[in-house]
Amino acid sequence: MRLRFTKMHGLGNDFVVLDATRAPIDLTPERVRFLADRHFGVGCDQLLVVEAPTQPGVDFRYRIFNADGGEVEQCGNGARCFVRFVHDRGLTDKTHIRVETQSGLIEPRLEADGQVTVDMGEPRLDPDDVPFDSDSDAVVQPLSLGDVRVLITAVSMGNPHAVQVVADVDAALVTTQGPSIETHARFPARVNAGFMQVVDEHHIRLRVWERGAGETLACGTGACAAVVAGILRELLVSPVQVETRGGALSIAWDGPGTPVLMTGPAVTVFEAEIELD
Ligand SMILES: N[C@H](CCC[C@H](N)C(=O)O)C(=O)O
What we know:
binds 2,6-diaminopimelic acid, 16% helix, 18 strands, Diaminopimelate Epimerase, Chain A, domain 1, DAP_epimerase_DapF, 18-stranded mixed sheet, 2 domains, alpha+beta, single chain, globular, 40% strand
């Protein structure tokens, strides 16, 4: 079948975006992996599928698939690209949109300067909600990686995150510890592994080894999870500038019981068609 797609990115975290608002698209894990493949397909970290809503009072539904073909609950950079996509395609003229995702409702807003602010909802801190196998709800918990023990904070932004504080992100063992944390047995749904360097109380540097995609240039939900972890550990004060390899995000959070607000860019690179088996 002939498939029209839009290539987009949020700070270099890149997406293939499909419009399934008028007709469903039959996406198998194999097809997702092909579209995400940077040598044999189009190439992206995640595939985003925009659909009509399934419940009243909501404008759209948006689904997220990692490059490994698995469908996941949430994507922060993707949420901003989703807003740019539905506006540029004339699917809505609203600037404040209610969109359902696998992990619940989020409310992105297109700002006058072209940036997008997303109410990402409240972080979930109970280990059972991450999910993280633990008999403690301490903010900082040890995690054994073979003969090394690291200290992580487990946070869900709808999707699971394990955040570490490191002295220097450029020297962090992202490509070795990342996969070990991603597939650690204590994270039954696997996990995104964040490595955060605190520059000052309003500024961090962050790298993320993403579940199902590997290290990306930026991770929106990872930035939210890192700021939540930093505030809970009394290392950070809201708002926080999150510097990623792809650029900067602004994250605000007023503490437990309140939503995390993320602001950043969303860019359309090109549109094209591809033949899908
Ligand atoms: N790899 C993530 C999904 C994409 C999240 C990331 N691209 C973002 O911007 O939040 C997961 O498996 O939960």
